[in-house]
């Protein structure tokens, strides 16, 4: 196998885990992980923990 | 600073919110679009101002969840200013809420929205007189056209800097006396004592619960007041006082043009569209027209009616973007009677062009990459083919949404809920459930959230259970793909239309059955304001489409790509994957699929050699419904390679329509349902999809063998449904009679 084939395999594995990584990153940033905006979402508490924390502080 | 937007449903709060904050929150020309508060920022005044859009409410009583959300925010979170958005075309009715907002110790400003429509009608509202009577600033605005917005914000900003004490419009001396005494009891204990005092006098559920200590004194004081015809119902007494004040004071602030039409344009249109007999046929014709424009390969019925043949195919190819000569050659080779070629609908036209474009990209990449390597297989046959299979249908799906958004924005969808309510109230179904269900045509997630508006928990569970039956946008690529292979290309529109209709019919039948076997409750009256018809706004329509496309792009680049990679790996490697690639039939996925095939075998579509592929595809649909198409394409099932009978295709479509929705929707169902209700919902989705798909396949098979026997079976099924419906109706009537 050539070196870029290894890179492609790593990229593929990365793409498989990307949705899960994004979910965690978004949680930390307080963003929704589904792109559809979390203002009315019942999952907001679970999905955007930072936002929930901010709200509870207020 | 924090400003709250409060007002009646469908008075334009969200449109104003979007104009102020530059957001693209979903705006719909029907009441109940906003069911929870949302926040944005207005920056034009040099200071950041948080704008909170509250759900539309008629009063501050805690009867519905929206009222609770709005009331809690206004009373407990102390916004710096309340912008009371008032529909200027219905001023008197909207002012009922205003009279309650004025009782809170928060600065209030009245925004007379839709003033452009008022002026168009030749009506004048005496703003200064209104201002002096309400004792708060009043501003004329048009949220849609952006008129008067900055002036309103400037006024609200200066208002927010001055403290305001609540005031009431109640004039009855005895009642005012009672309010004052009750207010004194509240003094120092709560903010806005006037508001709490009046609510306690009204026997407001929350106030009674929270202020038991004062209640006894208030009751004694109330007993001394003569309530006349209201027989001690203080909620009615207070409401009557408010209405008296509004009628007495504000009738003269509206100067109507002489001879102003009593019957508006909307009334005239409604006479036809909500007609007692014709409304449902008109709805069906409108929906068929929409599906015809999106999915038909024969837009002007040239082929189906006239059997018209096109001698020069060059211009047809231009119109479709695809080689119709190839299609003709394929059909002739397959021995199919190819009667002619017609002009396709805009949806098919766009899909063909998109298919041609993405197909060309795949060909280009395939030409560059070396043949026979694993990575060529992955990039071309796995990744690109999977993404292309969905992408090529996206223009069609967006077009479908454009039409649905037009119907929604024009105000017609609100009428559909009204029509449905009138038709199905007899069976114990409330029209209020139809609003969330109709939202299900877009996405099941917000539709399930919208069930918050239903007060009864069982009604909410039932509505959530039926929501996926209203085919969401993510399922549209499945129908578009199957439409292109079903019954010789020319019945695509009828196929998709029938799928949507079948979903609605089954939802109604299921609701009737659940009502019959469940504990039937009296159906609460469905009160919905029918919004005036208006021309759909291009800005709103584009915002809807953009949201849809953005959502799709996000899904395609994350969850769909991830599942395509997994599917490719599982379908190209065996259990001993380190030994290298294997034939698809020896792959891990084939083994897993064969297990699933056993389960789905009776449903027809899993019977053939490719049965395991369909089984796998229907399971990957749980991740995202678009994955059904992507998986099928990755496994080599596309137009030309799908060899299912029409009965099996229909059964496959029906299974995917009724089965568990995607995981996001399942999670929403869990959070919005009761614990027991959620378990029943899961069992219901699994059972309903299996049983209906089974029935569809075998009845279809019977029709293929003998039309008469098949037709008889269908008639028996319809008769059984009608009998159950009549039984439900009878049961309800008996209950009402009791």
Overview features:
heterodimer; A: 58 residues; mainly alpha; 3 helices; 0% strand; B: mainly alpha; Rossmann fold; Helix Hairpins; 3 domains; six-stranded mixed sheet; 33 helices; elongated
Note down, in words, how this protein is organized.
The complex is a heterodimer of chains A (58) and B (738). With 58 residues, chain A is mainly alpha-helical. Helix content of chain A is 69%, strand content 0%. Chain A has one domain (3-57). Chain B is elongated and about 90 Å long. Chain B has 33 helices and eight strands. In chain B, helix 18 packs antiparallel against helix 29 and helix 32 (675-705) packs antiparallel against helix 33 (707-737). In chain B, strand 2 and strand 3 form a beta hairpin. Chain B folds into three domains: 2-160, P-loop containing nucleotide triphosphate hydrolases (Rossmann fold, 3-Layer(aba) Sandwich), CATH 3.40.50.300; 173-255, Helix Hairpins (Orthogonal Bundle), CATH 1.10.287; 422-738, no CATH class. The two termini of chain B are 55 Å apart. With 738 residues, chain B is mostly helical.
